[in-house]
Write the structure tokens for this entry.
Amino acid sequence: MELRDQSMSVESTDKDLTLNEEVVITSNGNEETTVIDTNDTDVSDTDETSEPSKHLSKEEIIAELDNISRKEGAEIARDEVTHLKQLFYAIRKVELVEEKKAFIERGNEESAFAPMPAPLEAKLHELLNNIKEKKAQYTALIEAQRRENLEKKQAIIAELEKMAEDTDNVNRHYPRFRELSQEFKSLGEVPATDITDIWRSYQAAVERFYDQLKVNKDLRDYDFKKNLEQKQLLIDEAEKLVDEHDVITAFRRLQELHEKWREIGPVAKEIREDIWNKFKDASAAINKRYQAFFEERKARERENETAKTAICERIEALDFSSMKSHAAWEQMTREILAAQEDWKKLGFASKKVNNSLFARFRETCDRFFAKKAEYFKSIRDVHATNLEKKTALCERAEALKDSTDWKKTGDEFVALQKEWKSVGPVDKKHSDAIWHRFLEACDYFFDNRKKATSGVRKTEHANLKQKQEIIESLKAIGTDTDRDEAIKRVRELMYQWQQTGHVPYKEKDKVYDTYRAIVNDLYDKLDIKEVRAGMDKFANSINDMSNDENKLYRERERLVRAFEQKRNELKTYENNLGFFNVKSKSGNSLLRDMERKVQRIKDELSSLEEKIKLIDSKL
């Protein structure tokens, strides 16, 4: 004889036939939610399905999924579908790495890379959706069957209650009672919302029948004893689950124990409440841990949602619609990449907002990199056009450099130089080389012309005499002169010096050093602070050009040319110093004069280098 215990208030153990959402990253870099049925009653929670080979191609994976999509909903195993999908995207990930590598090797910018669409990806989505629909249909059938089972069980309970009320014929009804009990157990599951109520009603009806039943006491006691032993085993197992590390596993195992508890009959009435309370207490401890686990997870999800929203707002506040320079784009890129790194460190937000937050974040990132790629493409096109123009100017200069028609060709070279200045910048990797090529052709012609036109020496000697007179005038300015008048006089003489033309080559350094020494001495005596002011003025000028890259590139080229000339001049002086053998007082004086010139050139190189670095910081 089977006995049934009193009703119990427990959580539903019916498997909810819902669909589980799995987030994956597609080949386009987007987060996508794929729905897979996790309530396949033919598949256990552990992966016991036969795994497809990890060496399948994408075509074979699609073929496997196509075969699965042709099966009935009850035959489709979630783990197998998930595994095939993961294999597909693992292969796709390798393809993207190779594709990006090839893209960069072709000379493209890494930031401009955009993956090509995967031909089989659409088919993959189609098959996954077909599988989802089949599982949904299967779920609908299961729900209908559960509702039918509920109606049948309610009918059985009604008949049991009617028999329990017929107290005079309880013994005669006992065979029918056993049939109804077996039939009740053999019926399948009912809707999750009705599990507890239907079992309570059934247990109440069974207990009322047994209370009225006049049966052999020994048989009844035997059933009570057997049921007590089985329930005690369930209590022991439930108490062990309290210490289970995996909260989810403990909760699922508890639901199985509750299912078995319902199937075991009642125990003696005097211990019935005590035995149930023990089982209920162990269950409550496990349920409490399970609830705390999910509350903690929800708290983390809320924190992640807040953090991800803040990151979205942070990059949405960036204005990359009006950036005009390479440096500005690179700075903005660093900010975007930093935001992406911060995003990767965060876990999932809640399911209802996680995908929308990622889509929002991704949309801003994609929009930025699209605009960046568009900007650099336009710059590369302009630089390429400028390189073609400058190459053509080099070819024209090289064709003219051997000409001896000094006047006409000189004018043509001046025109070429003006045209060169009007052409915009080229890529840095070509800038110096193309400039040196053009400069070499120009210098070659002008050096030849200079050698051939010795008549200019008379003018140079006249300029030398005028500069010597300026030097003597500067020397005449003494400390007894009124300071304001002295400063005014110094500036007038400096202006005259700048307006005076070239002097003979052999005399230029000597006369310049004399002039510079006197001017520097007057700067100190009169406290004229214009040298640093000159650098400040240059910095202000560069700041004014910061929004015009063409002007910045032209100014940089001018400074590079001056830097090269000074460096060559320095090499010449340093080579000459190596030939000095000082054995006389006059020779020693000449050596010191050379050393001062070398130091002056080094100072000028340092100033030019500082100016070039200042421009590079703006590009």
In short: Confidence is low (pLDDT under 50) at residues 1-53. The radius of gyration is 47 Å. The first helix runs from residue 58 to 69.
